[in-house]
């Protein structure tokens, strides 16, 4: 029990229209003020505020002990927290447009305060109550001002005492007037009259319940709002139904006795659990995904490396050629990647011509757990053990298909790991890996000749397979180099503040080593007293579809502060995030510069919004420190542009050099042919060429049909003879030399 608490009586009425103003244990007294005129917490709304009641403190505490009443925190009205700047604002609501003239509210408040100003500026609240000045002083004040009645002075003083000295408690109770679904009274009809006046339907509670039930029953996917409205009227507002000429005739009630289509579309989605028309048309699955994205549920909450891994398979968007002949075009290979959800570190990959399946994903997991020294040396890249960390995540997140087999589930169980599956067509849950796949296509696959750019060939367009000249052995080094650059050299933002403190280099491999060596725990959110929020400074903010973002107060331009996003369950349930998807809303929020974990939004009361981040140390950073850190990050990104540009320039130069050599060899083979093949004949035989290529590399392709084997047997291949010099001096790559000799024999 403390001053300002709301008193709730545990009787049949359950009244809660009194508030504790002050209590004194020495004199055994407690004063209670009426709040029935202020908020909807009371049973009545009287224009006059009665005087505070006095009672024995011991008797009051005895009632609490006997569970006859209880004290709960008082829900302070939102207008009590308004400042002078808020009174000058036109519209503070983010949910509905309003036309309230707050300057008139302020004028009424100041007028009432002038009546009691001599008393409240000279005495405190406890002095006024102890000396009983609230009983006699208003009458003397009325005689001084020459007023016929002291009623307004008594009412203003009682409001001031009930508000515990808050000047805004003298505001008129205009907030209880009007509002959604409430009848409005006018001296003259509002608006411009055009034609005949049609009396509309005033919706009450029963009508809104009917509209909600009708919306839930009749508004389905593929059913328009008008059709659902007609069925709703037939069910609830039909006065007579009869059959006439094999057709049902429905006679409705008069137009002023049933809701309009606009009212049906307005109140139907507001009923419990109902979705909007757009969400219904998109489907419940799509609606659930959008809700998860707005509320932040689709974002991973993992703050430990190696705890959750993401696995996905994507085509390489490439047309490779055979090792035996660059005229033999192979089909598009597929790449399976295993990456960390926290840092985006790629643990392992598997690239092959097999279609995505359980086996390809298991090979990628095996590659992630194995040493990559021998794997990279196979393609001419020398690395050390610590340059590509080998690790198997405790949990693996994959598509709802490739790993969902008996083989995959048993294999994951034997590895003492667990598997999770994403919903179909919900790639946002694997955003880290989906982004990695897109970057790999743009910065590597689409730069190599023969790439299909991830799309089908348009009519009349040159087939990309005609430019194919890279072999599998030439493609893999470029892919591995891009992964090593991503893991070991690419500068990324710090996911945790503690990494900055320890001086960790902002690259994935260093962060990965730091996470393996050091552990940390999440901090518990700290609540701030609501009374101190009124003293906090205000910052400009904007409401986006994912929450509230803050503007940088030190910038001359409207720049958002990175990594500061706030939301709450109330903000999500209010529907403001869904409206902000099409129209952003400017706001002003209360921020504690020493605590960025929570901000306050003054909207129909002080609403707390929590920061949405995976970093528990964000709660320990001040606003100034974070702004300086963000400024340093901008400088680092600016300085790394030159290095980043040099890397890509050298990469393109390497690709052009290899492509020039490959095109030259391809042209020599093409000129050596007796009969020049057509474009169509060059693109034929991909399946047979791939089958032969996999056999030559010691792989085990899928068995081919007998007719295809006969076609391969009919091909004449001139056997190659090995010279004595080649036998005495073995080549470091005998398989490639043998394939090239077979190719020369085929050309001759």
From TrEMBL:
Region (Disordered): 668-736
Ranges annotated as biased composition (Basic and acidic residues): 668-677
Composition bias type Polar residues, residue spans: 705-714
Name listed for the protein in its UniProt record: Uncharacterized protein
Organism (species): Albidiferax ferrireducens (strain ATCC BAA-621 / DSM 15236 / T118) (Rhodoferax ferrireducens)
């Amino acid at each position: 029990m403390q001053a300002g608490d709301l008193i709730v009586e545990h009787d049949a009425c359950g009244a809660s229209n009194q508030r504790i103003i002050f209590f004194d244990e020495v004199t055994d007294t407690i004063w209670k003020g009426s709040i029935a005129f202020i908020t909807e917490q009371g049973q009545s709304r009287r224009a006059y505020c009665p005087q505070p009641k006095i009672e024995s403190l011991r008797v009051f505490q005895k009632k609490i002990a006997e569970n006859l009443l209880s004290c709960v925190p008082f829900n302070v009205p939102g207008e009590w927290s308004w400042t002078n700047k808020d009174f000058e604002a036109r519209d503070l609501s983010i949910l509905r447009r309003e036309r309230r003239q707050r300057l008139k509210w302020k004028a009424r408040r100041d007028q009432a305060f002038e009546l009691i100003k001599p008393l409240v500026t000279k005495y405190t609240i406890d002095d006024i109550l102890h000396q009983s000045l609230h009983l006699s002083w208003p009458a003397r004040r009325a005689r001084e001002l020459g007023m016929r009645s002291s009623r307004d002075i008594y009412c203003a003083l009682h409001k001031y005492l009930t508000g515990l000295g808050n000047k805004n408690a003298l505001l008129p109770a205009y907030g209880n007037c009007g509002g959604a679904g409430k009848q409005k009274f006018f001296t003259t009809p509002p608006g411009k009259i055009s034609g005949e006046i049609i009396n509309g339907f005033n919706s009450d509670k029963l009508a809104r319940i009917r509209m909600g039930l009708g919306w839930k029953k009749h508004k389905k996917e593929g059913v328009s709002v008008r059709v659902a409205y007609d069925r709703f009227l037939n069910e609830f507002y039909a006065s007579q139904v009869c059959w006439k000429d094999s057709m049902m005739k429905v006679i409705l009630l008069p137009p002023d006795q049933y809701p309009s289509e606009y009212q049906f579309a307005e109140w139907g989605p507001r009923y419990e659990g109902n979705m909007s028309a757009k969400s219904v048309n998109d489907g419940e699955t799509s609606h659930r995904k959008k809700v998860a994205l707005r509320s932040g549920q689709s974002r991973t909450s993992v703050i430990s490396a190696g705890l959750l891994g993401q696995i996905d398979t994507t085509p390489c968007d490439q047309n490779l050629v055979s090792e035996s002949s660059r005229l033999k075009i192979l089909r598009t290979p597929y790449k399976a990647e295993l990456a960390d959800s926290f840092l985006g570190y790629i643990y392992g990959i598997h690239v092959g011509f097999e279609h995505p399946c359980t086996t390809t994903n298991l090979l990628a997991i095996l590659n992630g757990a194995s040493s990559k020294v021998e794997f990279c040396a196979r393609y001419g890249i020398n690395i050390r053990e610590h340059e590509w960390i080998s690790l198997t995540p405790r949990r693996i997140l994959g598509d709802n298909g490739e790993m969902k087999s008996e083989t995959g589930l048993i294999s994951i169980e034997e590895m003492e790991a667990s598997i999770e599956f994403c919903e179909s067509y919900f790639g946002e849950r694997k955003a880290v890996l989906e982004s990695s796949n897109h970057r790999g296509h743009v910065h590597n696959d689409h730069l190599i000749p023969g790439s299909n750019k991830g799309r089908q060939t348009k009519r009349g367009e040159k087939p990309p397979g005609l430019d194919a000249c890279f072999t599998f052995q030439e493609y893999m080094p470029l892919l591995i180099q891009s992964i090593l650059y991503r893991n070991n050299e690419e500068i990324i933002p710090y996911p945790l503040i503690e990494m900055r403190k320890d001086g960790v280099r902002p690259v994935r491999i260093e962060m990965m080593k730091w996470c393996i060596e050091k552990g940390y725990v999440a901090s518990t959110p700290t609540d701030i007293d609501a009374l101190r929020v009124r003293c906090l400074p205000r910052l400009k903010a904007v409401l986006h579809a994912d929450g509230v973002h803050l503007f940088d107060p030190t910038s001359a331009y409207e720049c958002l502060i990175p990594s500061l996003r706030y939301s709450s369950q109330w903000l999500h349930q209010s529907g403001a995030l869904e409206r902000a998807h099409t129209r952003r809303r400017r706001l002003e929020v209360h921020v504690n510069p020493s605590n960025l974990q929570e901000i306050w939004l003054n909207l129909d009361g002080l609403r707390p919004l929590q920061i949405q981040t995976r970093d528990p140390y964000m709660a320990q950073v001040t606003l100034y420190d974070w702004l300086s850190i963000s400024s340093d990050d901008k400088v680092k990104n600016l300085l790394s542009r030159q290095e980043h540009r040099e890397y890509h320039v050298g990469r393109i130069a390497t690709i052009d050099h290899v492509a020039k050599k490959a095109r030259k060899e391809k042209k020599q083979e093409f000129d050596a042919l007796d009969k020049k093949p057509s474009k169509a004949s060059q693109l034929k035989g991909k399946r047979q060429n791939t089958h032969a290529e996999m056999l030559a590399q010691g792989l085990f392709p899928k068995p081919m049909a007998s007719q295809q084997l006969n076609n391969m047997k009919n091909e004449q291949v001139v056997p190659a003879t090995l010279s004595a010099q080649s036998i005495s001096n073995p080549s470091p790559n005998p398989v490639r030399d043998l394939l090239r000799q077979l190719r020369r024999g085929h050309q001759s």
